[in-house]
Amino acid sequence: MKPIRLFSAAEQVAGYLRDMIVKGDLSGEMPGIQRLAGDVVVNHKTVEAALVILENEGFLERQGTGRRRRILVPQGKRKKKALRIAILNYEPLEAVERFVIELRHALLNAGHDAFFSEKSLLQLSMDKRQVAEHVGETEADAWVVTAGSLEVLKWFMESGVPAMALFGRRRSLAMAGVGPDKAAAYSVMTRRLLELGHRRIVLLARRARRLPEPGLPERMFLQELEAQGVATGNYHLPDWEETAEDFHERLENLFQITPPTALIIDEAQFYFAALQFLAFRGLRVPDDVSLVCTDGDPAFAWFRPTVSHIAWDSGRVVRRIVRWAGNVARGKEDQKQTLTKAEFIEGGSVGPAAR
Fold it and tell me: Residue 289 is inside which H or E element, if any?
């Protein structure tokens, strides 16, 4: 029978401290002997013996009399600390976009405990006080915030909670952020519609994209119209509540008096709803109304005519968030904001303006 190795108290303390160093829970300088003795509930002689063991293993280095030991990690020993990452989605869980689910899997594959928080921003009314309470009730080391308002994202920045802004009003804030650079694509899209003779162009965007003022892509849309002499107003970027009832009511109102010749729809689920609305009224795409979606969707591959949309590489966005999580886990500050290229793809759902 193999003999049992019994570890001394000093070896047990050394093992405990070694594990903390490798995980990254201890870095910089080792706390003083008296504090360590109190933390692990042993006498100071046992702690001193444990520190000597770690010195001999290369985990600690003396810096002179009266100074604390410097913590070292021998090459290849440091482990990346796993984070508990909460994904605060814009909509409730049943409406989570496919690529956000892919993001969660990528974070899990990177060794982190990634999960969707119990409430969405819509359920929290995009209110920073409710968000703060929700964050306080959730056990998480870091957050990915999807399509946050300026007020909400500013709260995360000021609170010191590690957070990555996925989309949202992040550009003016000193915090990590990522998303597609749609502003240029909106300009190309709008210019193309104008070239095709469209003037009555309506952009149906989420409230978070319009209030308290239009976002950059929405402003580019309005600027392109104004550059061609179109006097813009609420008609081109109308207000609507984010409910199915109000969405269809807004479309009904638009087509009663001055029907649009082109609709730009924010996100695929609203595109499908608009397409159903047009079909019910007997309006053909693109003969009667041109239709554009500001995002892509796998279902579009089955559409004939093909769908005009704005395309961007979600994989690049996912990889950036995984890198950010790794930096946070290593204690490295990461406030970089990354824009992924977006491109307007013209499909068969766009045609000359109906006369």
Answer: none
